[in-house]
Here is the input.
Amino acid sequence: MKILWVKANKILPVHSGGDLRSFNILRQLAANDDVTFFSYYDGPVDADYEREVQGQLPGAICVSMGRNPNSAVARGIDYLTRLPQAAPYAVSRFAAGTVRSRLERCLSEKKPDVLVLDFLDAAIHFPKLPPVPAVLFQHNVESEIWRRHANNGSAGLRKMIYGIEFSKMLRYEQATVARFDHVIAVSEHDKQLMSAWVDPHRVTVVPTGVDTEQYSPAKTATTEKPLAVFVGAMDWEPNVDAVKYFCADIWPQVRAKIPEARFRIVGRNPDHRVKALAGDSVEVTGRVPSVVEHLQEAAVVVVPLRVGGGTRLKIYEAMAVGKAVISTTVGAEGLDVQDGTDIVISDTAGCFSESLARLLQDASDRARLGLAARATAERYGWPFVGARFGEVLHSVVEGSSKVVPARAKAENLSDVPLVR
Here is the structure.
């Protein structure tokens, strides 16, 4: 089977949960099928990145879009420029004529059996789908993320922008999902949301995975300190909101009971709002060579997400290390976990703080949860996930009776101008 996989943004080095998921599935698929990875990214040509991608995924095609609106002012101008467009900014900012023309040439030359568009933003270059089966890989239901942003207590200009982008994203995502031959979701929750827009038989869940060899319990047992750890990309708004909420509403209650407790925020590119949280009991590490050591050192891993979608790779990684995890329902959406058995679910600040204080003080209960967590994570290694993803693609190519082709017209999406 010949697969053309299209993704916006650089995939290496692997940092975000989506990139980690895509990279591991790509490697599993490439072991059995002919995979061409098409990567396009902001900024000038990055020869080191392109060389590394082609080394990891031979035959990869990389396209630089040239522009690079890094500063807040540049991003603001770029946003205002694209505001009249129908597509939300999170999608329209990736539109580029150079990318579309190179994709058209790639389709003609490679003649793939199936096209995989990785994340919703890759669909901007296909207002009309090509004459090959096309699959949309939905790591999140993006409109659900924007809905939660819009309703999560923001104020002023930020609330107005979230509201605009939510409305745009909902319309765009509904129309885009309906156009594809098949959609791959990462959780039953996401499938249920999208089933309101499309025949459920055209949506298949492929669960998230974890590298159970890299993420494993520490070989030498040590006495755990009362350390809570959060892991995630700290320039992603849901994570910023999570740690702000934790430090404001949860952590003070824990510290009142356990004055020696410490909280560590581990993740790349911490936003200025995250850096401001650092203090006597809160550490902000920024980028680290590996998060495994930080997870192994933690007594409890916390996931106080209030906004988000998809599945939480950080939770499976912590579980694979054998750690007790406390999460909100939003944080654990889409995962095969059971409250009280292999994870603790707490949705209010009071409940979360009480659960965390208890676990920081109760080593035996932490150990019980950690053992059950490791057993759960071991069921979701990447070879299993990659094989399942490949099965879905083969069924689409072979015209499985469960797959109903959908080639709806896209006039309502073709008004998105491309940047040349």
